[in-house]
Amino acid sequence: MLAGDFVEDYELMVPFQALLSVGCAVDVICPGKRSGEQIATAIHDFVGFQTYAELRGHNFTINKDFDAVNVADYDGLYITGGRAPEYIRLEPKVLEITKHFFDTNKPVAAICHGIQVLTAAGVVQGRKLTAYAAVGPEVTLAGGHYQDVPPTDAVTDGNLTTSPAWPGHPAILREFYQLLDIKIHS
Questions:
Q1: What is the pLDDT of residues 4-32, one digit of tens each?
Q2: Which residue out of 44, 58, 100, 113 is catalytically annotated?
Q3: Does residue 58 carry a catalytic annotation?
Q4: Which residues contact 6 (CB under 8 A, 6 or more apart)?
Q5: d(CA 77, CA 92)
């Protein structure tokens, strides 16, 4: 998982715990951070303004050194949202990591503003995807086909699944599990 300071709290905590619950090993990395260091989260909520309101969330402890990541060791990539993507996308290694998953056709999930990492990496050309509505113009400018869907939905195109915001966790996680070939039986 790619994250950074002021990642949206739910968009880190929920998929992290959900992936662990189905048996995935999940490393959360942040540029410039080492295992054991913390990042701050933010809680975004829709309370009647034209955009979300932001409150301070929890601290999250990074569990893998950013510089120690070997992308070949991973089966999938999850890009979290919030404000973190606007600055982690400035780190060349974040873009290299992201491109690897597209070059090797491995599963990728990105939520909300996490799509900003995808547009910066140049991997959305010709793809259908969604994002937080304010990121939609970036998708179009990067050559992607922005899909305006309810925040509870996900859009999947090949190895990529995206959702506009945290209300879409059930949809994006269901799609990501399928891309990872995780089968859940009741």
A1: 999 999 999 999 999 999 999 999 999 99
A2: 113
A3: no
A4: 39, 40, 41, 42, 54, 82, 83, 84
A5: 16
Give the residue numbers spanning the domain of 107: 7-179
Considering the domain boundaries, does residue 163 fall inside one?
A: yes
Evaluate whether 102 touches 39 at the Cβ level (below 8 Å). Answer: no
Identify the CATH number of the domain in which residue 47 sits: 3.40.50.880
Is residue 69 a contact partner of residue 94, using CB atoms and an 8 Å limit?
no
CA atoms within 13 Å, Cβ hemisphere of 55: 7
pTM of the model: 0.95
Residue 186 lies in a domain: no
- Residue at 51 is within a domain: yes
Phi, psi of 155 (to 5 degrees): -125, 130
How is residue 2 annotated by DSSP? B
Query: Does some domain include residue 2?
Result: no
pLDDT in tens, 85-106: 999 999 999 999 999 999 999 9
Q: How many domains does the chain have?
A: 1
Q: Is the Cβ–Cβ distance between 84 and 3 less than 8 Å?
A: yes
